[in-house]
Amino acid sequence: MTARKSLLKVILLGDGGVGKSSIMNRYVTNKFDAHLFHTIGVEFLNKTLEVDGNQVTLQIWDTAGQERFRSLRTPFYRGSDCCLLTFSVDDNQSFLNLSNWKKEFIYYADVKEPENFPFVVLGNKVDVTERQVSSEEARLWCQENGDYPYFETSAKDATNVAVAFEEAVHRALAADDKADHLIPTDTVKLHRKPRSATACCS
Amino acid sequence: MAELLKVIFEHDGIFLHPSPDEGSLDEDLLVSGFIRILEKDSEILVEYRPLEDSVDPSNILCAGQDSSSVVEWAQCPGEKSQSRQLLETQQSYETEWDMVNAVSFRKKNYTNGEGSLNHSHERSRWAFSVNISDLRSITVKDEGWAFLILQLKDSSSSLPALHFHQGGSREFLDSLRRFALLTECPEDETCLLVSTPNKALSQSFENLLDDNSFGLVHKFKRDPYVTTLGSFSKVTNYIYDALRGTEEQQQRPPEEVADLLGEVIPGLEINQQEEPGFEVITRIDLGVRPPVRRAEPLYADEWSKLQDPEGRIEDEVTLRQRIFKGGLCHAVRKEAWKFLLGYYPWTSTLEERKSLQKAKTDEYFRMKLQWKSISEEQERRNSRLRDYRSLIEKDVNRTDRTNRFYEGLNNPGLTLLHDILMTYCMYDFDLGYVQGMSDLLSPILYVMENEVDAFWCFVSFMDQMHQNFEEQMQGMKTQLIQLSTLLRLLDLAFWNYLESQESGYLYFCFRWLLIRFKRELSFQDVLRLWEVMWTGLPCQNFHLLVCCAILDSEKQKIMEENYGFNEILKHINELSMKLDIKEILQKAEGIYLQIRSCKDLPHSISTILGFDTERRVSNQTDPGSAPRPVPQQDVCSNGHCRENRPQNSCRGVFTS
Ligand SMILES: Nc1nc2c(ncn2[C@@H]2O[C@H](COP(=O)(O)OP(=O)(O)O)[C@@H](O)[C@H]2O)c(=O)[nH]1
Ligand SMILES: [Mg+2]
């Protein structure tokens, strides 16, 4: 009855310039393009991978971070199965803004139980030598905010990028399984509301 | 328990003018407040709420008192503080991260209007809330401002007239049209009859299509009209998708995303309705698209011949037309763009241009010095400037870096890009820097190869694009609505398809419109497209026809492959750098000619394309030849005339 999802929507959020687009490209095409444009609007890429013998398609969404574009960005949060909160270890402000990104996501994604929603935190650009955020600080934040897994990544030299996405997939699937146990299908039928729509578990 | 309500529309500056017989003791009393359209479950409510300090305690709301649908807002004392608290929590959240557009409050239903009269909560005397299914009609009147009279179905009395002193009545009605049919009353054209959808119909769909038709049911709840062709195709598509059991079924449906976007771009749905009679579908029959040929670009020797001995451009009209048909060869761009963008007036002499440039150089460096001379310590106390600078630094490093002019580290092109953008912040601090602006500047700087000229040309271009970047992004919303209107009337079948995939508001064209195809075309092709667009020919908003041309080439694929919401977005995003500028311009011009020769053009199209504001010059009628443009552009040598120009400053005007 609880056939697993085969399409997962994952969204990258964080300040402009922390490397969201680079991380996505690294993961999907295994390339780092130093000439990449800054993102305008909303984009996504698909990547297929195998989890426990099953094919899973990851749909990775990337957006523009500037405040001005918020209203046209936030609708795309809906239906996310996992959120990758991203900062850059050489930019303290981007780290401080994590909690705002988390808040914005929870608010607009309309998640059922924010406290159980799978977030994964990425501290990107670890290849850079001048750090402004230490691993300890970052880990502490993750611990205090809901025990999120934390990865120090580099889109540039590919450090930890794949691992982070795989963790995101596992978390998303685990959350999905748990939700299936919590909500018997009957209930779904009775209260057919947008928010309980991890829809048909056929 | 507090109920979560969704605010669909909100507008303040709405006044009541209570007359003495309505309980006002003071004849001059005006009640100021705001109006909202709210969604609660699947009910749509219209609420009026006065601002607290404007209300005289002696006032009593009489109107609508016997309607069961009138509820009071601020309720009894105990509850009141509680509801207040909820509101305040929300508000502090809002100011902190400014993300709240939903409000929680408690409401109480009065089955008997007497109840509300006997209460002593004066502030809410004037407040009312009506379910739109209880509305019989809305009468629209004008007294220099618009005022609306809402008439209830089961009551002979009406609610107090709502005076929209600060505008917004049209937007209010447009929002309302998303949930109800407003049709002109045959006997009285100021009166709009309100009819709401048949609940039984959507209910039966809910039963008909079981579980995995979730998307359909959800959509019907929000938008239960099946009267338009668009909606019919929507229905069939949902059924189709439900049966097909696509992969997307596993996800929350993308239409949730779409619905939210629809709210961000309000007014879209109604703007597609040509006539007030909502369900009328206007379709124009376009003739065959005439073949269009592009010309050779304008060469340097041709350009120099166009000036009189003092350096005035002699025949601007022909020149514009020439540029529209062929573009410019690169050698001419540096000079010609200054005219096209309005930095140089066409009629200026060489001498005048020299002194203009001198004055502009001084002005530029004065502004540049302003940010250059800010100390680090000062900047620490100026968060806006700091934010602009940080964004500019990041984006300059991510703009056209494969172009020779901007490639590598420490390229002087990068410094110039940075400095001009910083100076623009000083020129227009309110707007500052918004992402996308570096894309607009880069080609201009590349062509000008001069900091000052590039700056002022950029200022002129920004005058045209300003609204795209403003806080509310009104320019983007307007363009999306206009494009949707055009597409709907030019290609109803395709538009219906998009609509059936929740993509009728054309969100996927966002990047095209924000930065005028800068990311879609190769750098050289961007130069060509922009100079063609800057001629203002053949009509206002030609770039929207360019959009239509591109979509026309893609529609077959999109429909054949049955692309859904996400796939359409992805497909359009991935067209980037695969488009052929010549083909697009030919097609766009062809579409223009088709529309131009169309007999009964809907008014909305004429307005969008500026046909209705053309000044016809009778003595130049020249049957059989292409329309002849007549300059209408204001002399605008300095880029300062945004305020007195229409958004599309280089508007062409021609005889037909
Ligand atoms: N050194 C280093 N630079 C990176 C890394 N990831 C991204 N960048 C650079 O950081 C800048 C911003 O990256 P981008 O992906 O556009 O950030 P986004 O705005 O979050 O999408 C670009 O110049 C990238 O080349 C990384 O892991 N290491
Ligand atoms: Mg990006």
Automatic annotation (TrEMBL), chain A:
One cellular component term from this protein's GO annotations in UniProt: late endosome
Compartment(s): Cell membrane; Cytoplasmic vesicle, Phagosome membrane
Family of the protein in this entry: Belongs to the small GTPase superfamily. Rab family.
GO biological process per UniProt: protein transport; retrograde transport, endosome to Golgi
Topology class, membrane: Lipid-anchor
Protein name in UniProt: small monomeric GTPase
One Pfam short name: Ras
Lineage: Eukaryota, Metazoa, Chordata, Craniata, Vertebrata
UniProt catalytic activity: GTP + H2O = GDP + phosphate + H(+)
Automatic annotation (TrEMBL), chain B:
Any one GO MF annotation of this record: GTPase activator activity
Top-rank taxon, per record: Eukaryota
Subcellular location as annotated: Cytoplasm
Domain Rab-GAP TBC: 327-537
Keywords: Acetylation, Cytoplasm, GTPase activation, Phosphoprotein
Main location: cytoplasm
Protein name: TBC1 domain family member 15
